[in-house]
Amino acid sequence: MGSILSAITRPPCAETLGAEPIAEFREESRIEIAFHPNETMLNPRGTVQGGFVAAMLDDVMGPALVAASGGKEAPVTLDLTVSYIGPVMPGRVIGKGRVVSRTKSTAFLEAELFTEAGELLARATSTARIFPIS
Amino acid sequence: MTKIWEGQRSPSAKLMGSEFISFDEEANELTTRYTPPPSFASPRGAVQGGLIAGFLDEVMGGALLASTGGERLPLNLDLNLTFVSMVPLSPIIAKGRVVKAGRRVAFLEGELYDEGDGRLLARATSTALPTPVPGAE
User: Fold this and answer.
1) Alpha-carbon distances of B18 from A104, B9, B56, rounded to whole Å
2) Residue A5 bridge partners (DSSP)
3) Among A30, A1, A2, which Cα is nearest to A98's?
4) How does DSSP assign chain B, residue by residue?
5) How far does A19 lie from chain B, in Å, by closest CA?
6) For chains A and B, what is the number of CB pairs under 8 angstroms?
7) Nearest-CA distance from B12 to chain A in Å?
8) What is the dihedral of CA B118, B75, A90, A6, to 10 degrees?
9) pTM of model > 0.95
10) With contact defined as beta carbons under 8 Å apart, do A38 and A18 qualify?
11) Chain B contact present for A59, CB below 8 A
12) A43 touches chain B (CB under 8 A)
């Protein structure tokens, strides 16, 4: 499990978001990853810009599918719908992602972002195409 | 005096390498050029999906700002994205548009195009609350 999660955090986008794997629940197709949004991502209001919130949600739902497949498959997001519930501040936030359902080539994914205290900040769902990875 | 939607008005705009191109007052449409930094790359070497949202969020927000004469910024309630084509790590042209804005709610939409060949890369819509610009009256 450790090697799959560390492979997931290696791409630049994961570094940018400060992805930190927390836990994996493979039988339930769920994963938890913390992120560290920073001051370079702020909008004029001083909160983390919506696109970066979408990025964190995308970057925890994708790995849920990769981990559930034992590192054999990866998703390409076709659409992403985000609901913004509370302001996201720079610091550490907790992402929880899961595969809702899947066929051979398509998956429905979802994710939520929480403060460390457990308050819900944002939710997202997505439709993804599944590809094998070598 | 430079209008704020013509400059890099926030840290996130700066990070995305945002450059104002034009604002069409009749269509309430803002056009901006962005240069994705290498730190946005996915394992496939394209811009990661959620980070594509960043460019659309910026340009849609800028469209509301420009259409209200610099007085209103959107507080997004939702963002709905369609990823049509992979977004390469090269300059993109973004268009943001106010579909309709009232005092209490604004409906926004936007598209991203590859600057090189003009192909459509992604689309978005958003429901937002128009809020006063921080630091304004």
Assistant:
1) 39, 9, 11
2) none
3) A30
4) ---GGGS--SHHHHHTT-EEEEEETTTTEEEEEE---GGGB-TTSSB-HHHHHHHHHHHHHHHHHHHTTT-EEEEEEEEEEEE-S---SS-EEEEEEEEEE-SS-EEEEEEEEETTT--EEEEEEEEEEEEEPTT--
5) 13
6) 128
7) 5
8) -50
9) no
10) yes
11) yes
12) yes
A19 neighbors A86 (Cβ within 8 angstroms): no
Chain A residues touching B82 at Cβ < 8 A = 78-79
Contact (CB, 8 A) for A37 and A56: yes
Could you write out the DSSP letters of every residue in chain A?
-HHHHHHHT-SHHHHHTT-EEEEEEGGGTEEEEEE---GGGB-TTSSB-HHHHHHHHHHHHHHHHHHHTTTSEEEEEEEEEEEE-SPPPSS-EEEEEEEEEE-SSEEEEEEEEE-TT--EEEEEEEEEEEEE--
Q: Is the dihedral of CA B62, B64, B67, B68 positive or negative?
A: negative
Residue A17 phi, psi dihedral angles, 5° rounding:
-85, 0
Q: Which of A88, A56, A40 is nearest to B14 (CA)?
A: A40
Shortest CA distance to A110 belongs to which of A71, A90, A74, A83? Answer: A83
- Interface ipTM above 0.90: no
Per-residue pLDDT of chain B (137 residues; tens, 9 = 90+): 467 777 767 888 888 889 999 999 999 999 999 999 888 888 888 998 888 999 999 999 999 999 999 999 999 999 999 999 999 999 999 999 999 999 999 999 999 999 999 999 999 999 999 999 876 54
d(CA B20, CA A14) in angstroms, rounded, equals 28
Q: Is B96 exposed, middle or buried (0-12, 13-18, 19+ CB in 10 A)?
A: buried
Q: Residue written as tokens 């080539």?
A: A105
Which amino acid, residue B127?
Answer: T
